[in-house]
Structures are given as structure tokens and as C-alpha cells.
Design brief:
The protein is α/β, with parallel strands linked by helices. It has ten helices and seven strands. The chain has one domain: Rossmann fold, CATH 3.40.50.1820.
Length: about 250
């Protein structure tokens, strides 16, 4: 089974937190103190990553990932997913709608790679080179990826230091990095179109991976969702500004 742990107020609003690619649930360490009074927090390490390293499915696709999540997830909760975790949370809501009371995505894009009709992703050549580099040298490639995640932030140096510390706690294994990265190549606009749950999509105006410029496009994909942009934050802005994210979560949930 996947690694999970519970924190916060057992009587509070259940809140599942899903991390992004290459990381583990330790990435939320600055956010937890801001939420523990009001929320019953469920932290889950995604398959093959963090302390779920032994739970690597034979076929790393959304069906397998959500099936494993269903084994450890609460009966009902608000789900918050960061980056790739946002796509996984939305897919979980499609497959287990009764177990999701609301959705929050943070720094999540329906297409992390460019399409002819989607200009907000990484270009194909750059992404393919990233795949090749990851296969050849996972540690160095992950380090470069972390530098991209903090880019544009006034706290970039401190955020990069935090990411290094988090990864040093539980380093991801190369097979899990390669298998889970494949999920970032697909087009998930149909999931946005199909989502009926109350939803909040948070973008960050300094994000290089899920640019805030796509806010209008997200609103067209899911007209009933709220789409907000967090000023001055990079892809990992919540590390140094957890109060801002916590306030958005409380406003949406409580």
C-alpha cells in the first residue's frame, strides 16, 4: 500500500494533499502548521516516490495510480494536488466522485507539453531532451528541474535549499522518476471539461512550468471553476509563503 500519514485536527475538514513529480509529501512541511487547527490532513506519497518507493505499479498510468490511492484515501475529503498531483486528484474525482467533496489544484497544467492548440507548455524538443537526460543521469536532471521550479521567485535560493533538504530525506529511485514522468506528457483537457466537483485552480505568476498566462484557457475548459493567480510566487512558492496558500484553502473549504 502507499505510504500515508494523518496530521492536524481529527475533527476538522478532511483534506488530502498530493505532491508533484519527483517529490514526496515532505514538500508540505511549511504548510502543515498553517492548516493543522482546521483540517484533518491526509498526506500520501505517490506510487514509487518518497516512502511509497516499493509501491511501483507495473503500468504507471492514471488508472493504476488512482486505484492505489483509493486503498488509503478517506471516504470523503477535499483534494489538493500540486503540479502533477493536481491532475491525479482530478482523475481520482472522476473515478471515485463520491469520495471527493472539492478539488484544488496548484501549479497544475492540463498540458505540460505544448500542443498545436496549446501554447502554454514546454516545447516538445526541450521535453524530449529532459526525458533523455533523466534516463542518463537522474540525480543531475532532478537538480536542474528543481532550479526551474524556483525560478522567478524572490526567495529562489531559500526554496532551492528546501527542495534539496526534502529530497535528501527520501531520494526517489530512477525507475519511479522515469515512469511517473511519462504522465506529464499527456493531454488532460478532457478531465477539466468533465469535472463537476467544486474546483479552485491556483496558478503562480512566476511559474515556469504551469504559467499564469493560461488562466483564461482554464476558465474556458471548466467555466464553473474558480481560477486565481498568486502574485510573486514560483512553482514552489508555497514553501516560503505558506500563509497565502493556507488562506486560499480555508476560503474554499470552510
Amino acid at each position: 500500500m502507499l505510504y500515508s500519514q494523518q496530521q492536524g485536527n481529527p475533527q476538522g475538514q478532511p483534506l488530502v494533499l498530493l505532491h508533484g513529480w519527483g517529490m514526496h509529501s515532505g514538500v508540505w512541511y511549511t504548510l502543515l502548521p498553517e492548516l493543522q487547527q482546521d483540517f484533518h490532513i491526509i498526506l500520501i506519497d505517490l506510487p514509487g516516490l518518497g516512502r511509497s518507493a516499493a509501491s511501483l505499479p507495473g503500468c504507471y498510468d492514471l488508472a493504476s495510480v488512482t486505484r492505489l490511492l483509493a486503498e488509503v484515501a478517506p471516504a470523503s475529503a477535499v483534494w489538493l494536488g500540486w503540479s502533477l498531483g493536481g491532475i491525479i486528484a482530478m482523475e481520482f474525482a472522476q473515478r471515485y466522485p463520491e469520495r471527493v467533496s472539492g478539488l484544488i489544484t496548484l501549479g497544475t497544467s492540463p498540458c505540460f507539453v505544448e500542443r498545436p492548440d496549446w501554447c502554454f507548455g514546454m516545447d516538445e524538443a526541450t521535453y524530449s531532451q529532459f526525458e533523455d537526460d533523466l534516463a542518463a543521469n537522474p540525480a543531475k536532471t532532478l537538480q536542474r528541474f528543481n532550479m526551474l521550479q524556483v525560478q522567478g521567485s524572490s526567495t529562489a535560493r531559500a526554496d532551492l535549499k528546501s527542495l534539496k533538504q526534502i529530497l535528501s530525506e527520501v531520494a526517489p529511485t530512477p525507475p519511479a522518476l522515469v515512469d511517473s514522468l511519462a504522465l506529464l506528457r499527456d493531454d488532460y483537457r478532457s478531465i477539466y471539461n468533465a469535472t463537476e466537483h467544486p474546483s479552485l485552480h491556483l496558478l503562480c505568476d512566476q511559474d515556469m512550468l504551469a504559467p499564469a498566462a493560461m488562466a483564461g484557457a482554464l476558465s474556458l475548459l471548466q467555466p464553473k471553476a474558480d481560477v486565481n493567480v498568486l502574485a510573486g510566487q514560483s512553482h514552489v512558492g508555497f514553501l516560503s509563503a505558506p500563509q497565502c496558500l493556507a488562506e486560499r484553502i480555508r476560503t474554499f473549504c470552510l
